Amino acid sequence: MTGPSSTERSATDRDATDRDPIDRDPIDRDPGAHHVRTDTSGPPSAWVGWIWFAGVMVIMLGLFNLVYGLTAVLHDELFAVIPGGVLLFDLTTWGWVHAILGIAQIAVGAGILRGMRWALVLGVVLAVLNGVAQLIVLPYYPFWALIVIAVDCLVIYAIVVHGGELRRALRGV
Predict the structure, then answer these.
(1) What is the DSSP letter of 41?
(2) pLDDT tens per residue across span 135-145
(3) Would you say 65 and 105 are in contact if contact means Cβ atoms under 8 Å apart?
(4) Are the CB atoms for 158 and 50 separated by under 8 Å?
(5) Is the pTM of this model over 0.90?
(6) How far apart are CA 120 and CA 87, in angstroms?
(7) Residues whose CB is less than 8 angstroms from the CB of residue 97 and which lie 6 or more positions away in sequence, other chains included
(8) Helix or strand run (H / E) with residue 100
(9) 48 vs 123, higher pLDDT
(10) pLDDT at residue number 106
(11) Any bridge partners for residue 88, and if so which?
(12) Which of 72, 74, 53, 54 is nearest to 64 (CA)?
């Protein structure tokens, strides 16, 4: 038996197949393919709390970097005793870079808490950079570095996968 003729198809079937292929739903284009459809009409999931966690962590990281940077600016000479001598470092530029980075991180964290799209993007970028930076201290503080990398991965996952839920929750949808 053959399928229904074009006169026997329902109006819904005709609408789904007669539209321009670009305008159709991806599931309509390839009915046999496996697609994940994200339902954006339901209430936000518990991951909204993890996005809040991400925002708070970025703010905390920013405060740490701000204090770290200002400390380096105010006490800009560091003596390090090494085998064979003493090293003297001027930390002024390094301190200003960290202070400015800390201020930026605080602003991004506040934006994440408000569900701002630009902050969600920059939050992911900062978490990636922070995770990569932990590779520098990994040989010296392996336990701490691995914990921070794990938290960075959670922050990235929460923002990338569930960032839209926070925006919906804040809109009251």
Answers:
(1) S
(2) 877 887 789 88
(3) yes
(4) yes
(5) no
(6) 41
(7) 69
(8) helix 92-113
(9) 123
(10) 94
(11) 79
(12) 72
Alpha-carbon gap, residue 79 to 88, rounded angstroms: 5
Nearest to 80 by CA among 90, 70, 71: 90
Q: Which two tokens stand for residue 100?
A: 């400015």
58, 60, 63, 67: CA torsion to nearest 10: -120
H helices of 114-141, in order, are 117-137
Residue tagged 């109006």 (tokens)? 11
Q: How many CB atoms lie within 10 A of CB 70?
A: 15
Nearest 5 degrees, angle CA 123-CA 100-CA 145?
A: 55
Taking the chain, what is the end-to-end CA distance rounded to the nearest angstrom? 47
Q: Which two tokens stand for residue 136?
A: 């520098």
Cα 134–chain centre separation: 17
Burial class (CB in 10 A: 0-12, 13-18, 19+), 10: exposed
**C-alpha torsion angle, residues 65, 67, 70, 75 (rounded to 10):** -110
